[in-house]
Amino acid sequence: MKRPFAHVAGLGVYLPERVVTNREFEARLETSDQWIVERTGIRERRYAGPDETVATMAVGATGQALARAGIAAKDLDIIIVATATPDHLVPSTACYLQALLDAPKAAAFDIAAACSGFVYGLTMAEALICAGQAQHVLVVGGEKLTCITDQNDRSTAILFGDGVGAAVVSPGAPEGRGILSTFIKSNGALAELLYIPGGGTRDPMSEEILRSRSNYLKMAGREVFKHAVLTMAEACDEAIARAGIKPEEIDLLVPHQANNRIIDATAKHAGIPPEKVVVTVDRYGNTSAASIPMALAHAEATGRLKPGMVVLLVAFGAGFTWGSTVVRW
Questions:
Q1: Which positions ≥6 away from 243 have C-beta within 8 Å?
Q2: Is the overall model pTM greater than 0.85, yes or no?
Q3: Each residue of 12-70: pLDDT tens digit?
Q4: pLDDT digit string (tens) for 167-180?
Q5: 115, 236, 259, 298: which is the annotated catalytic residue?
Q6: CA separation for the pair 11, 74 (Å, rounded)
Q7: I want to staple 287 with a disulfide (CB 3.0 to 4.6 A). Which of 201, 242, 280, 291 is the partner?
Q8: Which residues, other chains included, contact 188 with Cβ-Cβ below 8 Å and sequence gap of 6+?
């Protein structure tokens, strides 16, 4: 089928109020602002409050996205929430969001694809619209990563932040704008390079899990970096080829905001100059599934993302999962 037949009709974002700078880590961990900035590019991140959850934060982001799409919650047919930090194991965070939004006709489900979740969600939304299963799909990327991060572990504590981004995906291609290509892939054989060892059904929560702190995220940093660079390069190539365009036709690259080194390597491989790359990792840290929609919303708010632009989205995350999308905005 000839694309585009679905487009992003509206974006929204929710940022928790609390700003945590690198200076706060200097006071309690063996690190420094200079060390963090040089190795990651992160200067600050947002932390959600104790009463904030992915679902409650998503209400604010969704409200903005619905308003910009010109529809109401009652018009939504499907709600997809991409998250690694669900409000509960059961039911889905998407169901909680459906209730909070009062979206009575919407089917609701979660996607667990970690940092690639928003790209997976866009792929699913487009497919559902193409199949005639939905008119308007809400895709949310949201995380409260501070709840699964060991704040005593220097290698991970400095990296992650909280926040939510949302997009309404609708049918049609106004002025030829919309999703031009998608690509998703995974490799579960590498799962234990970035995972939470305990607390699931394989190793249920216990006193020993709490003592060993294995209910927090564990990461083999060097290996994750290597695979992130390789797979995001593959994802860029695939999305560009499937869209039938050339790299020089890309107006903006919006990569998953993991760290500056991965972003730089991805842009260099894709042949995209720095001035075309959207970077928000310095102000938000790594927000996993929320990072791409948050970066998109930031680019739109600051005037960098404009109608008619060709935008490449690319992500890599735990699983391992990776994926990409080309959108004519």
A1: 180, 181, 326
A2: yes
A3: 999 999 999 999 999 889 999 999 999 999 999 999 999 999 999 999 999 999 999 99
A4: 999 998 888 899 99
A5: 115
A6: 17
A7: 291
A8: 319, 320
Copy the structure tokens of residue 157.
Answer: 């504590």
Distance separating alpha carbons of residues 18 and 287, to the nearest angstrom: 15
Q: Give the pLDDT confidence of 283-327 residue by residue, as tens digits.
A: 999 999 999 999 999 999 999 999 999 999 999 999 999 999 999
286 an active-site residue?
yes
Q: Which of 314, 49, 54 is nearest to 163 (CA)?
A: 54
Residue 147 annotated to the active site? no
In total, the chain counts a number of residues equal to 329
Instruction: Find all residues with CB under 8 Å of 253, minimum gap 6, and list them.
Output: 266, 267, 270, 272, 276, 277, 278, 311, 312, 314
pLDDT digits (tens, 9 = 90+) for 264-283: 999 999 999 999 999 999 99
Q: Catalytic site residue 236?
A: no
Give backbone dihedrals phi and psi of 8, rounded to 5 degrees, phi first: -85, 110
Return phi, psi of residue 248, to 5°: -70, -10
- Stated as kind and residue range, the H or E segment containing 82 is strand 78-82
157 CB-side CA count, 13 A: 17
- Catalytic residue, chosen from 22, 227, 286, 298, is 286
The C-alpha atoms of residue 84 and residue 175 are separated, in whole angstroms, by 36
Paired tokens of 135: 């008119």
CB 166 within 8 A of CB 140: yes
Amino acid identity, residue 126?
A: E
Domains, the chain, in order of start with CATH, read 6-174 (3.40.47.10), 179-328 (3.40.47.10)
Tokens in use for 237?
A: 């190539």
